[in-house]
Each structure stands twice: as C-alpha cells, then as structure tokens.
Design a protein that fits this description.
mainly alpha; globular
C-alpha cells in the first residue's frame, strides 16, 4: 500500500467519508464529522501509520487534507 493510499484510508475510516471527496477543499470547517474528537483520532492514526510524532503546532494546523500532506512532508513522509 502506498503512502497516499494509507493517508486516504485514514481519512475515510476516521471521518466516514468516501475517497472521492478528498481534495483541496476538504477542510475541517467544511466537514461536519471533523470535530475535535475526530481530529485527535485522525492525528493518532496518522502518527501510528507513518511512525511520526507531531509537534503541538502541527496538530493545531492540521486543518485540511492538503495541508496535512505538507505537514507530513516536513517529517520525511512523501505522499
């Protein structure tokens, strides 16, 4: 499974959405399921899947599907 496939699966599993909606406009403000509890679940799953530990600042700014890819790149994960 590629990193992109893992990344997408985490979003679809945690937020209960279809992969087709994952795009540049997929943000926590636009998705009702992406509440604070789901956010922490998402972060936890991403950390486990990619063997990273996000800094607090990154957790706070992990507010969109696309921005998440950029944050992961800073930790050496190519999506």
């Amino acid at each position: 499974m590629s990193n992109l496939e893992k990344y997408n699966r985490i979003f679809t599993d945690v937020l209960g959405v279809g992969e087709a909606v994952l795009n540049d406009s997929f943000t926590f403000k636009a998705v009702s399921q992406w509440d604070s509890v789901a956010h922490l679940s998402l972060i936890s799953e991403l950390e486990d899947a990619f063997d990273v530990m996000f800094e607090s600042e990154d957790i706070l700014h992990y507010e969109s599907y696309e921005n998440g890819k950029k944050i992961l790149r800073r930790y050496g994960v190519e999506i």
